[in-house]
TrEMBL record:
Species of provenance: Paraburkholderia rhynchosiae
Annotated transmembrane regions: 17-41
Name used for this protein in its record: DUF2474 domain-containing protein
Keywords: Membrane, Transmembrane, Transmembrane helix
């Protein structure tokens, strides 16, 4: 009693370079937004004291 195992590729699977580009864009975007939030926090607290 042997069972046939078929492996099918899903259509939603992205190629490796596209994963790299997507993760790189996500990393750059999150780093820039974190830096912007840090800049706003520093302007609101540290540089407001004169």
């Amino acid at each position: 009693m042997a069972t046939n195992i078929t492996i099918t590729k899903s259509a939603s699977k992205l190629p490796g370079w596209l994963w790299f580009v997507a993760l790189w864009c996500f990393g750059v975007g999150s780093a820039m937004s974190l830096g912007f939030a840090f800049k706003l926090l520093m302007n609101a607290t540290l540089f407001a004291v004169k």
